[in-house]
Design a protein that fits this description.
Elements (H helix, E strand, L loop, with lengths): L15 E3 L8 H8 L4 E3 L6 E5 L3 H11 L8 E3 L15 H10 L4 E6 L6 H4 L4 E5 L4 H10 L3 E2 L14 H8 L5 E3 L11 E4 L6 E4 L5 H9 L12 H7 L18 E5 L7 H15 L4 E5 L1 H10 L2 H5 L1 E5 L6 H17 L4 E5 L6 H17 L12 E8 L5 H16 L2 E3 L2 E14 L10 H11 L13 H6 L2 E4 L2 H10 L7 E3 H7 L24 H26 L1 E3 L2
Parallel strand pairs: 1-8, 2-8, 4-6, 5-9, 11-14, 12-13, 12-14, 15-17, 15-18, 18-19
Antiparallel strand pairs: 2-3, 3-7, 4-7, 5-6, 9-10, 16-17, 16-20
Bound molecules: threonylcarbamoyladenylate and magnesium ion (MG).
Length: about 575
Amino acid sequence: MRHRDLCPKVPEGETRIIHPVTDEDYVFPAALLACGELVAFPTETVYGLGADATNEAAVAKIFAAKGRPGDNPLIVHVARKSDIPPLVTHITPLAQCLMDAFMPGPVTLVMPKSRLIPDLVSAGLPTVGIRMPAHPVALNLIRHAGVPVAAPSANMSGSPSPTRAEHVEKDLSGRIPCIVDGGPCDVGIESTVIDVTDSWPVILRPGAITMSMLEDACAKAGILPHGQPDSPAFDAENQGVPKAPGMKYRHYAPKAEMRIVMPESGDRKTQYLEAVLSFLADRGDGKLGVFCGNSEHEFLEMELTPEQHQQIIFYVFGGDTDIDAAARGLFDGIRSLDSAGVGRILAAGFVGAGLEHAYMNRLEKAAGAKRELEPLEADRDSPCRSVLFVCTGNTCRSPMAEAIFNKMAAEKGPFSEMGQPRSEVCLSASSAGIYAVNGSPAEAGAVEAAKNLFAADLSGHASRKTTDEMISENDMIFTVTREHAVILRRFFPELAWKIESFSEYMSRKSIILRADDGTVRKADLPDPFGQHRIVYEKTAMSLHAIIEAMWPAILDDLGIVAAD
Ligand code: TXA
Ligand code: MG
């Protein structure tokens, strides 16, 4: 931190707005940053609220200004790739490849953090998200400040990310000393967040850089293992996961109810007209917001009467099929229609695997936020306790875990509430898959192994896709690998605290599993799909050993004991 005499002062409650033109204009905001103060600045994605990432007291001000919960980690922004190595313990070949291909740009790479990064930045995680933005104002500011800059989006917690300096002003004016105005953001949707701590990339948040772009960039270099059968990253992109029902994120909640208008036979016009007429029929005198393209706007103007037209506030983003323009205008559109007091917003939906994917992810979050009810807390008074096992397709590892757990519960029960020996509590497990298709049978190898080793019958198993209800209603959720836990926590951020992999749970509880030769056994179980029967049997044996080792800790966490 600088000597205090060199630190600029901004009176409490005042917010200076800077429009930088020359290098000189960066001196003041950069000095604020270097002195441990907050500065909001533009990036090509959205505006960020920055603080010196190496100064814990400065970072704490971010959480206070935004009203952000401290368990959500911050992204650290740098101006040069050469500033990255000191912030991380090592750079894997995958990370290097993505740095070469996509930085500067709308991407954040999650890597193991070095000691320079305070725990407050990473929310206690051993990793840190690193981003080199492509906006010249951001790069100049960070370079002038001479420190890495921790910055979440510069909105109040609960409102959409800001894509214009005026949005930041609306949310944070009087709460931060300075906003650097660089005009509207070009991309309009936050960066793609990619976990690169292992040899496969896991997309934690979709953005303008898509999985197929990652693959293209790194497959040629031989960096990405092609077609890894169990890489959730590959599945996530191929199966368009965030569009799947039941995997809603909760984030900002517009005051208006949001409806997504999807194109049908290549066009959204008639869907808009029907949605407008149905709103006007039920709501009588309320206002309706319409986020649409140029020719959709013209079509509605022609079809509606002047009285009907008076009830509508339009936000026209550009050409009907221009996804770049729609993404750029999305948050501004939601903010401006919401502040105009509309009761419902009809927003253009897009189909496609590029930016459309990230756009739909944000739109569905905004629409879902209004629809969803608070998640049900597991009912502690209920006389049953339940555990959910999760893998990829729910046809092998998780059904075997379910069968093994239920068999153990039958053998080791009955159970009672801790300290209440006369109460009886039932205990059971079920299973689901992150990318499961509902209703598939268990794999033959799994059915066979369960039958031979544990006399368990998996022949009637029907796979299920993981849903909010399952995550809310089960007391404990275990995934078969760490990658599954990472993905599942992203899908259900509100309930992330409930979700752990076997390996994470065991390391938290200091449970060590040893093989016969005394070596420590890995608790992350690879998918035996399509392999020899012996591999299925080994997987089943490992699951048995893991569940048995975790058993006492699980009963303890569930607050139950075996009744004697
Ligand atoms: O485009 C962007 O990424 C913008 C601009 C300002 O750079 N920033 C942004 O920050 O969107 P924020 O804090 O609103 O969102 C960062 C996301 C969060 O969802 C957070 O959970 C995730 O990145 N994230 C950050 N560090 C992480 C880590 N170590 N592990 C997993 N997720 C992480
Ligand atoms: Mg944010």
